[in-house]
Amino acid sequence: MLVRQIGDDQLLPGYGVRYQQIYPHGGEDLADWGVGRAVLDRGDATDEHAHPEHEIFLILSGRGDMTVGTEQQPVVAGQAVVIPADTPHRLVNTGADPLVLLSVYWPPAYGRFDL
């Protein structure tokens, strides 16, 4: 069993916001899938970026504007955003409170993103 402490004291700068790599612990290059936690304070935004893995953002609290490719849409707590591999994406916190999310990513070989 692996148990990871999750908390604001575990957050480090990453992707333009505060980020915690939950699994794999010790760096994203240790496994080809993973889970992270991000906190975007009021007005913060992730760096626009793309990567070869599919990704899903599980919005736990807050609200923001999500851009995936050329699509932009508001998102709120209780929603999930699926991001295809190699697609530029960016999230902006548009609310007064922190936006907190879990990021789960996996290589395309593990399965389609649009099931």
Structure description:
The protein is 0% helix and 47% strand. 22% of the residues are buried. By secondary structure, the chain is an all-beta fold. The model has no long low-confidence stretch (mean pLDDT 93). It starts with 11 loop residues before the first strand and ends in a 9-residue tail after the last strand. It contains no helices and 9 strands. A 6-stranded antiparallel beta sheet has the order 1-2-3-9-4-7, with no helix packed on it. Strands 6-5-8 form a 3-stranded antiparallel beta sheet, with no helix packed on it. It has strands at residues 12-14, 17-23, 34-40, 54-61, 63-68, 71-76, 80-83, 89-93, 99-106.
Secondary-structure topology with pairs:
Elements lengths: L11 E3 L2 E7 L10 E7 L13 E8 L1 E6 L2 E6 L3 E4 L5 E5 L5 E8 L9
Antiparallel strand pairs: 1-2, 2-3, 3-9, 4-7, 4-9, 5-6, 5-8
Rg calculated over all Cα atoms: 14 Å
Counted by DSSP, the helix tally is 0
Biggest sheet, open or closed, and with what strands and sense?
6 strands, antiparallel
The string of secondary-structure elements, in order, is EEEEEEEEE
N-to-C CA distance = 30 Å
- Lateral strand order in the biggest sheet: 1-2-3-9-4-7
Beta-strand segment tally: 9
Mean pLDDT: 93
What low-confidence regions span 5 or more consecutive residues with pLDDT below 50?
none
Shape: globular
